[in-house]
Specification:
Thrombin, subunit H, 3 domains, eight-stranded antiparallel β-sheet, seven-stranded antiparallel β-sheet, 26 helices, globular, Peptidase_S1_PA, Pep_S46, serine-type aminopeptidase activity, serine protease
Length: 753
């Protein structure tokens, strides 16, 4: 179900965030054979991955190709999200993961553990830097009140129930609201009497297909083992989005439930969850050309968007996003240098912004310098010509592209104002909390079905937990400073495009940076909302009349901002209401033009992508990259200083050649990371990488800079996924960290300590 608040979407108007996160790679390009494998035994045509993050139900169409590439399991299993191996794949609500033991052990990426580590860190016990290993299950640390594991249990097509007769509904906003009512009814019926279940509505192909998804929501998640930052984030931003990589980007959590194996709130006497399926470690070595598959929950791609949307991204959205990240990172890093506690609180945000900054630059480079924006526009012109030449096609699809462009242009008229307010609300987290309190007070008196989706009773616990969790990452200096930065950026706009909040802060004075900064300081000095208990109490009990009587300056500011936020939401809803009629026509034309095989854009739901282990040429006149990196390269790269500060225990084990059974015969040493030609994006971080037997061979965690714009247009020759190799994961656990219990639990055999 769509969620519209600027706060919930963190830079909704400006940032449809799509990125993976820090990731792995060889010292220099190495010449090698990257000829793709033949499409099948005895067939001459090589396999060239066309891209696609496929719905499980679409996998039946790929049976012949998968078997030709060497699939050894029943291809039908990949079409069933409740069977093995897909039944072991889970979502963490932003990252992907998978069960790797019968006792609820979960494997994901190191960078997906940042929030949990920050929640448990202090300047004296810095888990963000040092990692964490629970020697016993009693030592496994709670990841915090907002940590979740979602286990998909069922999909149901509800397209007819959601879209029935929507063309007859007059008015775009009314159409949107009627569709939302239908979605809320479906979700309510799905969850009724089943508190352990979380249901949601997902739209595909521009809204032309709608599914009701049922998931088990596990609320007690605990840290089991996260390696040192010098392993998990080796190379940092210098290596991020680059090959070669040498990052051990892996981590382990455990899902806990009540004694009846059903989800329960965090409690000391909860027990490990017993999943229906879990993945097994690969039993055969991985080689160049081998079939690999990734199953996970990719977040956002833009391949079914129009040329008008590409142009907006290139000329406005991405440049604005880059400047926001650059300024925010510089500010937060400076604050962290002055105060160790501020560094810990700000680190997850810095890491996330740094990652998104690099990807956004890469997408901008690919769309502009790489010519993909022009290519996208050219393809759209070809599509229009194909539609116009045939009367039947013109009747079905004619005018759709032009109608989308016109509606999009109208929606973009307030983009500067809306983006500025979005930046402020995502930067000033205490103001964000105050607006949540105001909106909750407005929504609580309504019947539950009439409330905005975010404020329905099914979400009250989440809203309360968010306020509790905020306390671990909130710092007045950080919040004040980022608030001031966002206001400073808004001051650069034409006065008529500035949010009214700026004038409210100025209080009739000149709108200068100094005056607004002083006003912000006064608000923080006078508010009581820095106390989590006070926020939760107001969230649960405050009425609108009581809030209007409040003298708290943060509440008073929130009362002024809330109506503006709702006006933006109304514009967004009307735009989407218009798109529900026209966007499916455009996508159907695109599907027919491409011959029927079309993957929907990523939207955070379960997908499967497949391909082969394969290198690439970063440039036409450069040698081909070998698709594996190895341990000796990491040792050479290590300097002892971040981000190339591999722990001494790792360097000692490598120098002493304590490799055990983790050596690859062809490479002659322990592999660290590998490349594939798979198609992934943000949200795939932590996704299980499977071999032809459906066994775990690694975890996807990154892509390559040259192909960042593949979120808009897939580029088979250079689009690559970077994975951490399971053999390196096992070697680190065995030879470096002493994580023998974890290794044994997932089916390995420690031999080196």
């Amino acid at each position: 179900m769509l969620h519209f608040t600027l706060r919930g979407h963190a830079l909704l108007a400006l940032f449809a965030l799509s990125a993976l996160a820090p990731g792995c790679g060889s010292e220099r390009p190495q010449a090698g054979d990257t000829k793709p494998p033949a499409s099948g035994p005895g067939q001459g045509a090589p396999f060239e991955n066309p891209g696609g993050m496929w719905l499980p139900e679409q996998m039946a169409q790929h049976k012949d190709q998968l078997e030709a590439l060497g699939l050894e399991i029943d291809a039908g299993a990949l079409a069933d999200p409740t069977a093995s191996p897909l039944g072991a794949v889970v979502s963490l609500g932003g990252c992907s993961a998978s069960f790797v033991s019968a006792d609820g052990l979960i494997a994901t990426n190191h960078h997906c553990s940042t929030r949990a580590l920050q929640y448990n860190s202090t300047p004296e016990q810095d888990l963000l830097t040092n990692g964490y290993l629970a020697r016993t299950r009693a030592e496994e640390r709670w990841a915090g009140p907002t940590a979740r594991v979602f286990v998909t249990r069922a999909f149901r097509d509800v397209t007819g129930e959601v879209r029935r007769d929507i063309a007859s509904i007059p008015g775009d906003l009314a159409r949107y609201e009627e569709i939302e009512k239908r979605k809320k009814r479906l979700v309510a019926a799905c969850e009724e009497g089943r508190p352990e279940v979380r249901c949601s509505i997902a739209e595909y192909f521009g809204g032309g297909k709608v599914s009701l998804i049922e998931q088990l929501e596990i609320k007690d998640v605990r840290i089991v083992y996260v390696p040192h930052e010098g392993i998990g984030n080796f190379g940092g931003d210098i290596d991020n989005w680059r090959w070669p990589r040498h990052s051990g980007d892996f981590a382990f959590f455990r899902a806990y439930v009540g004694k009846d194996n059903r989800p329960a709130s965090h409690a000391e006497d909860n027990v490990p969850y017993r999943p229906a399926h879990h993945l097994k470690i690969a039993s055969a070595p991985l080689n160049q050309g081998d079939l690999v598959m990734v199953a996970g929950y990719p977040g956002t791609t833009n391949r079914l968007r129009t040329a008008a949307e590409v142009e907006s991204a290139v000329s406005w959205q991405y440049p604005k996003r880059v400047s926001f990240y650059e300024e925010s990172i510089a500010l937060l890093e400076d604050l962290g240098k002055r105060d160790p506690e501020a560094r810990i609180k700000a680190q997850p945000t810095i890491q996330g912004y740094s990652n998104y900054l690099l990807k956004t630059r890469g997408m901008l480079d690919g769309l502009v310098e790489g010519g993909l924006a022009r290519e996208k526009a050219k393809l759209e012109e070809e599509l229009k010509a194909w539609i116009d030449v045939d009367p039947a096609r013109k009747a079905a699809h004619g005018g759709a592209i032009e109608q989308i462009a016109a509606a999009y242009a109208e929606h973009q008229k307030t983009r500067e104002h809306d983006a500025a307010l979005s930046e402020i609300l995502s930067s000033a987290r205490l103001l964000d909390a105050a607006i949540t309190i105001v909106r909750m007070a407005e929504e609580r008196p309504k019947a539950d079905a009439e409330r905005e989706a975010e404020f329905q009773q099914r979400n009250w616990e989440r809203l309360e937990q968010a306020q509790v969790s905020l306390q671990k990452s909130y710092g007045r200096t950080i919040d004040q400073s980022t608030f001031k930065l966002a206001v400073k950026r808004a001051l650069r706009l034409d006065p008529k495009e500035r949010p009214a909040l700026i004038a409210s802060l100025a209080g009739g004075q000149a709108q200068t940076e100094a005056a607004l900064g002083a006003a912000i300081d006064a608000i923080y000095a006078g508010t009581a909302l820095e106390d989590a208990a006070a926020r939760v109490k107001l969230l649960k009990t405050a009425t609108v009349d009581e809030l209007k009587e409040s003298r708290d300056p943060m509440i008073r500011l929130a009362l002024e901002v809330a109506p503006v936020e709702k006006a933006i939401e109304a514009r967004d809803k009307a735009y989407l209401g218009a798109m529900t009629l026209v966007k499916p026509r455009f996508v159907e034309a695109l599907r027919a033009y491409r011959g029927g095989m079309l993957a929907p854009d990523a939207n955070g739901t379960l997908r499967v992508t497949y391909g082969t282990v394969r290198g690439y040429k970063p440039e036409i006149d450069r040698p081909v990259y070998r698709p594996f990196t190895v341990l000796s390269e990491l040792v050479k790269k290590s300097t002892g200083e971040p981000p190339f500060n591999a722990p001494e225990a790792l360097l000692d084990a490598a120098r002493e050649k304590r490799f055990g059974p983790y050596v690859d015969d062809d490479l002659g040493e322990v592999p660290v990371c590998f490349l594939s030609d798979l198609d992934i994006t943000n949200g795939n971080s932590g996704s299980a990488t499977l071999n032809a037997r459906g066994e775990l061979v690694g975890l996807a965690f990154d892509g390559n800079y040259e192909a960042m714009a593949s979120d808009w247009l897939f580029m088979p020759s250079i689009t690559r996924t970077i994975h951490v190799d399971h053999r390196y994961m096992q070697w680190v656990m065995d030879a470096v960290s002493g994580a023998d219990a974890v290794l044994k639990e997932m089916g390995g055999t420690p031999v080196l300590q």
